[in-house]
Amino acid sequence: MMPWRMGEGDPQRDAEGRLRNLLAIEGLREGEILEILDSAESFLGIGERTVKKIPILRGRTLVNLFYENSTRTRSTFELAAKRLSADVLNIAVASSSASKGESLLDTVDNLLAMQVDGFILRHPEAGAAHLLARHLGERAWVVNAGDGQHAHPTQALLDVFTIRHLLGPISERVVVILGDILHSRVARALIHALSILGCPQIRVVGPRTLVPPELQGLGVHVFHELEPALTGANVVYALRMQRERMDSQRLPSLEEYHRRFGLTAARLRLAEDNAVVLHPGPMNRGVELSAEVADGPQAIILEQVTHGLALRMAVLARLAGGNP
Amino acid sequence: MMPWRMGEGDPQRDAEGRLRNLLAIEGLREGEILEILDSAESFLGIGERTVKKIPILRGRTLVNLFYENSTRTRSTFELAAKRLSADVLNIAVASSSASKGESLLDTVDNLLAMQVDGFILRHPEAGAAHLLARHLGERAWVVNAGDGQHAHPTQALLDVFTIRHLLGPISERVVVILGDILHSRVARALIHALSILGCPQIRVVGPRTLVPPELQGLGVHVFHELEPALTGANVVYALRMQRERMDSQRLPSLEEYHRRFGLTAARLRLAEDNAVVLHPGPMNRGVELSAEVADGPQAIILEQVTHGLALRMAVLARLAGGNP
Amino acid sequence: MMPWRMGEGDPQRDAEGRLRNLLAIEGLREGEILEILDSAESFLGIGERTVKKIPILRGRTLVNLFYENSTRTRSTFELAAKRLSADVLNIAVASSSASKGESLLDTVDNLLAMQVDGFILRHPEAGAAHLLARHLGERAWVVNAGDGQHAHPTQALLDVFTIRHLLGPISERVVVILGDILHSRVARALIHALSILGCPQIRVVGPRTLVPPELQGLGVHVFHELEPALTGANVVYALRMQRERMDSQRLPSLEEYHRRFGLTAARLRLAEDNAVVLHPGPMNRGVELSAEVADGPQAIILEQVTHGLALRMAVLARLAGGNP
């Protein structure tokens, strides 16, 4: 449950210190994030054209290596790669058939021998993408598309991209993150990204079992009631409530959670007038937010998906060495 | 079992009345069908070239969204899209993991946010493609690639294309449809398409339990014996006999069905000399037709497949707005 | 278990005697193999370019028709086809859902009607690719990508390619094949390929139950102890030991096998100084070879994978009629 700790050296960077892999938000520099966001802005228009394709990664081979089924994540990366004109090889490995660790690296060694350029890795185990990056060295790059509860950095990048695109600089916005902060890779990465970009106030809110006071140490403001957390907010980021939290007795019931922490239209009026509502999807309507909010004008959840595609194009183009 | 009924408005058309989606044969105009058939004629030659590819949908993104496994249908649509140079995203949703209705539209909303251009939808529930079309509005188009027992309109279009391509205008041909008319989406759509194109005589034939006399109301001639139905026919369309009809006691046995209604070489001689035999595939040799007929010179079942690819290219090109 | 015997005519060739399909090494001429190897040399450099793509099969449609799951083989053929700019249709048929024989040919007839150019077939039954080739005639070509224990000819071609690429002409090399020669399609095909290319000495070594003395008839030297077989060898080819051999009582235990026949660093020193170690993958470290050998400098197992991709490009380009 604890964040995966990197060993010596920085597996995200090459010997010259340049970004080589995208494994986690931790360790990224503000300038690098801004460059990626700027590049994503330039890719955003491509999806609106009739011909949604540019040739910058033509003839490169990218592998979608998925040890977990995630149609949505696989689809965005596949479309991002195809719109950059790369060839995409989809490999779905049933977790049952994969004996961990060795199997991943053996599979990768074979694909490397086929001269592929990079990997988009989804894996149920925390640290799998770091393990792969260390193994690859300079031979190919890897994007972490989710490794257990550890990291999913393109999600946080698309989130800050979306906020900046709609509201302007992060350094002028108050952001509220609502839900199970303790177990969420999305929340952890978002807090890091917001911090790096100079967000002046990051608030986290939820029950004590899921938002322990110790989080204060991360530089965030901890709330255990929703109303004061929302007052003056520009951005409300609702996390998906995992059903298993109920089973583990950290929450009494989904109804009780919604009653105390559900984002309703009435509560949202406590935030600033132009406040936006984000969610990593898929939503539990009636749990972390009401259907009225989910489908209302302040929710920009589908914009996040659109931005996510542009952001992933920017990441793939950067790691694969193409220039937009 | 009854045909799905559309609500108000015509979900196949945009506000200006132009064909926007292909959901069912019902509601298509003769001129529209003829335009699609003419366009398919022009695409037919592409499959015979060495380079089977034209650039008219380059950079468009088409989604093969399949909630039912159908390798054959998926393959033709995928090849049709690729030969038009579109990018294709294959998404197979196991019906077990899909909670109906909401799940489909949520999945689609995410794909729309990825700026895809159109959907090819296969779904086990009647009306799914209409539901999707209403949801999409002007944002993207949809081709119904089979929704339960309701519709599968590209099948009927390729059938009339095949008849016209080989025998000339539909308005001069006598067509016999043989089998389970009552439960067949193929039969219903074909009857509509033939009627729209002015077929002077459509005959349906099979046992009373599967070809009830009330069908007369659709403008077809009902027969319960095969021999008189075949006399003078130019086209014999044999439907696939579903095994489940036996279980439901609508048929005594496959052997008994074949004895009374199986299309044998001897019976086929009752039809016109140049009569052709069609079948939607896959065939039950020895049930709805004998192996001799299935593999004989009058059977044009594989031509249907070839024509189906050209026809689907024509449909995709039209809906995606490309001109051949 | 016995090699599949061809009937009359040569299903690998067209009426003019030109290579039409690649089904097995048996029956290939030395000149043909050398042409394929030379062509593969020219393709080897493409994988090292930034743009790993040449247009020679643009607009052709190739079908990866897999009745057995083999991610590795499917991936190399898919990448080979894509780097030649062909369109690839992946079809995975669960063996459970396929009723043998007829089903394969029916599926193929439908794909042929979609005007595909060629098939890459993987099938659990020996002889399936020959059956398909006879069925296809001049209509399309087929590459056998593994049919039961019968043949997998691109494996043997990549093996001789690798030996020639690294050590020079086969006609000057002593090759040792180690393991279960009796049941191995890899061994049988390699022996044929080496013979055709004039290898002066092919040695096979393993326990009597897996390397019966009758093999002498194939023109190979039979050994039942590893040390004398290795002396003077330039190439050691270790086969994968199948676990099922233990069950069938042909081997006492994997430990016992490794003790007597495992290729260790100490034993490898008996071979020539620059001797190379090949393996068809995936390896059982600690069974047919020690981890030290598997990961040591003489093992060229990943080079085999790289060469396999270039070799498959050469085969596809030749059968599809494109010239490099």
Number of strands of chain A: 9
Number of helices of chain A: 12
Lateral arrangement of strands in the main beta sheet of chain A: 7-6-5-8-9
Instruction: List SSEs of chain A in N-to-C order.
Output: HEHEHEHEHEHEEHEHHHEHH
Q: Approximately how much helix is present in the residues of chain A? A: 25-40%
**N- and C-termini, Cα separation of chain A:** 38 Å
Structural domain tally of chain A: 2
The greatest interface between two protein chains, and residues involved on each side, is: A-B, 23 and 19 residues
Quaternary state of the chains: homotrimer
Arithmetic mean of pLDDT of chain A: 91
CATH architecture title of the largest domain in chain A: 3-Layer(aba) Sandwich
* Structural class by SSE content of chain A: alpha/beta
Beta-strand residue percentage of chain A: 5-15%
List keywords for this structure.
Rossmann fold, five-stranded parallel beta sheet, 324 residues, globular, homotrimer
Explained architecture:
Chains A, B, C: Its EC number is 2.1.3.2. Chains A, B, C: InterPro entries: Asp/Orn_carbamoyltranf_P-bd (IPR006132), Asp/Orn_carbamoylTrfase (IPR006130), Asp/Orn_carbamoylTrfase_sf (IPR036901), Asp_carbamoyltransf (IPR002082), Asp_carbamoyltransf_Asp/Orn-bd (IPR006131). Chains A, B, C: One of its GO terms (cellular component) is cytosol. The structure is a homotrimer of 324-residue chains. By secondary structure, the first copy, chain A, is of the alpha/beta class. Chain A has two domains: 30-150 and 308-319, Rossmann fold, CATH 3.40.50; 154-304, Rossmann fold (3-Layer(aba) Sandwich), CATH 3.40.50.1370. Helices cover 37% and strands 14% of the residues of chain A. Chain A has twelve helices and nine strands. Chain A has helices at 30-44, 71-83, 102-113, 128-136, 153-167, 185-196, 226-230, 244-247, 254-261, 265-268, 291-294, 301-319, and strands at residues 61-66, 87-92, 118-123, 141-147, 174-178, 201-205, 221-223, 235-238, 276-278. A five-stranded parallel beta sheet of chain A has the order 7-6-5-8-9. Chain A has a four-stranded parallel beta sheet with strand order 2-1-3-4, sandwiched between helices. In chain A, strand 3, helix 4 (128-136) and strand 4 (141-147) form a beta-alpha-beta unit. In chain A, helix 2 packs across helix 12 (301-319). The longest helix of chain A is centred in the last third of the chain and has 19 residues, at 301-319. Chain A is globular and about 55 Å long. Mean pLDDT of chain A is 91; it is low at 1-7. Chains A and B meet through helix 2 and helix 12 of A and strand 2 and helix 3 of B.
